[in-house]
Write a structure and sequence with these properties.
By secondary structure, the protein is of the alpha/beta class. 36% of the residues lie in helices and 21% in strands. The protein has 15 helices and 14 strands. The strands form 2 sheets. An 8-stranded parallel beta sheet has the order 5-6-7-8-9-10-11-12. It has a 6-stranded mixed beta sheet with strand order 3-2-1-4-13-14, with no helix packed on it. Helix 9 links the parallel strand 10 and strand 11. Helix 4 crosses helix 5 and helix 6 runs parallel beside helix 7. The longest helix has 18 residues. The chain starts with 5 loop residues before the first strand and ends in a 5-residue tail after the last strand. The relative contact order is 0.15.
Length: 401
């Protein structure tokens, strides 16, 4: 923590206002006790802060630090082999018969120790940090049995202890039906998902609860049983919804006041309206759309028209989105889905914070946590404009350079 107030000067500040970048030219920011105490034009700096130590940022751009609000970064193994198989024309079924698909990741994850899971995740976490990310959401969901689901969540907590980054954990045992429960999804929910959630909550390992609502995974009725338990435990919910079909998952999530519904390629207007009424964030995940070569795009125009806040994230996972660059996800949101540079930056800051239930992150305003990114850039649109280039100068975490 910064022990004495610090004044950042000679910068452009993109505060991320409700209606735009909130750009302040020749800005000053006052950081005090890990929080933002004041922000505004340098000429208006209050006299009470005039004598504090100063840090000249050389005219650089300052934004809130980025937030990756949907990742599966803790997992065992990789699926490069099946990536190559798909390029040679193999179908999903053929990949699965050859030992690929989610079950191959489950097998590798079950075989990995907590230490091995942490070690495998850290290079990706470090890459995210190097792009100005200060908060990462990490899901379980590759264990599909109690011991490994808990081990994944413990690994995620350990990452937060080993790196200067805030980790939010999400319980995702309802990710797929494991082979030993094939055709018995209800029994899997009863015997694994629900009791393991009780255990994870008792150990303090869970910040939110998620599920995969699809024909290849879990029905709305099965997800609702999980949500009822989550609510009874005081845990917020999220949902992978409408990625491959429309089962009404987003509307179900909205009924439970979900923080977010994610993917949403097949979302219809009734689902959009339900999300708008509930204040549920739409998390847009272009990495999976790109990797799977999908053609059905999420209804960005409908989400805009109904005022649904849109976050954007990497969905970093070993199968459908092996991408750890949030800057690239922002570019993809613009190029693939015609989101604007302002929308994707808000999506990686203020709306991503909201998707994780973090009211004190994602903007530059008095009282907010002083997690900031300083960029070698003149304008915030540059962050989503360039491809494969990282303009980060440095991060400021909790007010500390």
């Amino acid at each position: 923590m910064q022990q004495t107030p610090l004044v950042l000067t000679s910068c452009r500040a993109a505060t991320i206002a409700a209606d735009g970048f909130g750009l302040i030219e020749d800005a000053a920011l006052v950081l005090d006790a890990g929080r933002i105490a004041w922000v505004g034009p340098a000429a208006d700096l209050p006299a009470e802060h005039a004598g504090h130590p100063r840090q000249d940022l050389g005219g650089r751009l300052v934004t809130p630090a980025l937030i990756d609000c949907h990742t599966h970064v803790v997992h065992g193994g990789n699926r490069a082999g099946e990536f190559e198989m798909r390029l040679h024309g193999a179908s999903y079924e053929e990949v699965a018969r050859a030992g690929g698909g989610i079950i191959s990741t489950v097998t590798a994850t079950r075989a990995a120790s907590e230490q091995a899971l942490v070690a495998a995740a850290l290079p990706f976490v470090d890459a995210m940090i190097a792009e100005g990310v200060a908060v990462i959401e990490i899901k379980s969901g590759y264990g599909l049995e109690a011991d490994t689901e808990l081990r994944m969540l413990r690994a995620a907590r350990t990452i937060g202890q080993q790196r200067p980054v805030t980790i939010r954990t999400t319980y995702l045992a309802a990710h797929a039906v494991p082979p030993d429960y094939k055709g018995r999804a209800d029994a899997y929910v009863d015997e694994v998902c629900l009791p393991t959630l009780h255990a994870a909550h008792a150990e303090g390992l869970v910040d939110a609860v998620d599920g995969f609502c699809e024909g290849i995974a879990f029905s709305p009725a099965q997800i609702e049983r999980l949500f009822k338990l989550a609510v009874s435990l005081g845990l917020p919910v999220k949902l992978h919804a409408e990625q491959l079909s429309n089962l009404g998952g987003a509307a179900l999530a909205a009924r439970y006041g979900a923080l977010s519904a994610d993917h949403l390629e097949y979302l219809d207007e009734s689902g959009v309206k339900a999300m708008a009424a509930a204040g549920t964030v739409a998390v847009i995940l272009p990495g999976a759309f790109y990797t799977l070569r999908e053609t059905q795009m999420p209804p960005i125009a409908l989400l805009r028209a109904h005022g649904v806040p849109m976050a954007i994230a990497t969905d970093m996972n070993p199968g459908s989105s092996p991408m750890s660059s949030l800057l690239l996800a922002m570019n993809m949101g613009c190029t693939l889905f015609r989101m604007t540079p302002q929308e994707v930056l808000a999506g990686a800051t203020i709306h991503a914070a909201r998707a994780l239930g973090l009211a004190d992150r994602g903007t530059i305003a008095p009282g907010q946590v002083a997690d900031l990114a300083v960029w070698n850039a003149d304008h915030p649109a540059e962050l989503s404009y360039r491809i494969g280039f990282n303009p980060l100068h440095h991060r400021i975490i909790g007010g500390v350079l």
